[in-house]
UniProtKB/TrEMBL annotation:
Pfam families from the UniProt entry: NUDIX
Assigned keywords, A-Z: Hydrolase
Matches recorded under InterPro entries: NUDIX_hydrolase-like_dom_sf, NUDIX_hydrolase_CS, NUDIX_hydrolase_dom, Nudix_hydrolase_domain
Organism: Streptomyces luteolifulvus
GO biological process: AMP biosynthetic process; ATP biosynthetic process
Domain Nudix hydrolase: 7-135
Any one GO molecular function term: bis(5'-nucleosyl)-tetraphosphatase (asymmetrical) activity
Protein name: NUDIX hydrolase
Coiled coil regions in record: none
Top-level taxonomic group: Bacteria
The keyword Hydrolase appears for this protein: yes
Amino acid sequence: MTQGNDTIVQAAGCVLWRRSPVHGELEICLVHRPKYDDWSHPKGKLKRGEDPLAGAIREVAEETGYTAAPGARLPTMHYLANGRPKQVHYWAAEAISGGFTPNAEVDRILWLPPTAARNRLTQPRDRTLVDALLTALHLA
């Protein structure tokens, strides 16, 4: 990769899911980032030389407080962020343990059924990941 403005920003994240502790239905975790005032899937930039899957799991832990068990690979997203090309690798990941504590990057999370999650997501491109998760879990 070259240095400069044509460098592709490498990032990774997960569509984090669980079975509701109340009714057993699928719920998807969305994070609210006050800096951007948006709702998205947990994700972040990779550290130099970091494996994308390891980075995705690290970002989930940092942003949501949950330990995640990775599952199916989901579509990689490509878009411009601040005028620079960005590539975000995604996986389905089940929340195994943990709990959310607000932090500087993420002040709120929501566990929502798929339709509500799709509607709450700020970026339309993130909605396709909800559909990809349902397909991966054989629920579509």
